[in-house]
Amino acid sequence: MTQQASSTVRLAIMNAVHDLAVIVARDEGYFRDEGLDIEFVVAPGMAQVTTEAEILKRQVMFDRPLDTMYNEGGLDQYRMCEWGILKRAVEATDSGLRSRKIVALGSAMSKFAIVVGPGSGFCEPEQLKDTPIAVTPYNGSNFTALKMMEGFLSRENLKTTEAGTMRDRLEAVKRGELGAACVMEPWISVAQKQGLRILIEAHSSRSEAASEDLDGATLAAMFRAEARAAETLSQDPAPYLHYLTQETGGLLRPDELQAWRLVYSAPQPYTRERFKDTYDWMVSWDMVPAGATYENTVDNRAWEVQ
Q1: Which of helix, strand or coil describes residue 77?
Q2: For the chain, first and last CA: distance in Å?
Q3: 210 occurs within a structural domain
Q4: What is the mean pLDDT of the chain?
Q5: Which domain holds residue 219?
Q6: Are 127 and 155 part of one and the same domain?
Q7: Strand, coil or helix: what is 183?
Q8: Exposed, middle or buried: residue 248 (CB in 10 Å: 0-12, 13-18, 19+)?
């Protein structure tokens, strides 16, 4: 571990719903209060209207912008859905890429929903049998859609597809070109505003990934700042809702966002039991190679600081 707490940390910001605790900690000076020097690196995400859907046509997961930034050394720490981080942590070394470890269960409990057209005839999850659901491959909407739907459909009848950004998916559902799409906030609220039907929704956790250059003291300070931000959001998220709605390009006002869906909490250690449950589920879907261990995937050094 070579980096000290006084060094600049390059910290990713992507989709606001996942990174809102980071944004609040930045705006309110919580990172500064911890003595941290943070460089905030913005990456395109599927919730943003400015993102090009061509990103998803890059079939190799590690060729996407956030992964490329990290692999080329432009980032030290970032967060994604729990499954996406686990997959990347397991596969990066085998692919000859920059190593990363899971260093926390993150602060954002982001909400995802499967939506359909109001006149589609789909009124319950079971009716999506053999109907492709649009997701972002190997990211939160992909994994959360499977988690939500496998209680209603057998795996052979549970289908997913790629159809671009969150806005692209909703537009395709409205045109009747897609039967269903999995989206997150602020696009769940956009879907409701536009009259689409929500069949099922659920929260899913983010995980935090970091390079080996970040020592435990630095990570602990970062997570303390995010914990303060999570508490601030739990008291009143209203001053920060514009960060989500601006991703819609004017389709949603802050007062139209269903803020009750936003849940944030303090980052936590990533436990051995959590790893086993998540990893075994991913292996059962053939979404990650077998053979990984807790020891070579997780490093809870932020909680080992004396």
Answers
A1: strand
A2: 16
A3: yes
A4: 91
A5: 8-109+205-303
A6: yes
A7: strand
A8: buried
